[in-house]
Design goal:
Largest sheet: 3 strands, parallel
Shape: globular
Distance between the termini: 31 Å
Order of helices and strands: HEHEHHE
Number of strands: 3
Radius of gyration: 12 Å
Number of domains: 1
Strand content: 15-25%
Strand order of the largest sheet: 1-2-3
Length: 78
């Protein structure tokens, strides 16, 4: 299942935020008009030890991300 289908299912399920490590999401999907916001995690890898330092910035970005918005959370946000 691709991101487009996941986004549709998440919106239909009442989710507000789509969390991904897919760096190309904003270029592959048009979220304008979507009820979902998206947060893209950008780390050295998708390993837990590389993603864990992003959690404080992720927690801050979550309530600040509105419908149709894409935010990037990376090491510079921490």
């Amino acid at each position: 299942m691709g991101n487009g289908e996941l986004l549709r299912r998440a919106a239909a399920g009442g989710f507000e935020i789509f969390l991904t490590a897919d760096q190309d999401l904003q270029f592959q999907q048009n979220l304008a008009g979507s009820p979902l916001g998206a947060i893209v995690l950008s780390a050295r890898s998708n390993k837990l030890e590389d993603l864990a330092p992003l959690v404080p910035s992720l927690l801050q970005a979550t309530p600040e991300t509105g419908p149709g918005e894409v935010r990037r959370v990376d090491i510079s946000n921490t």
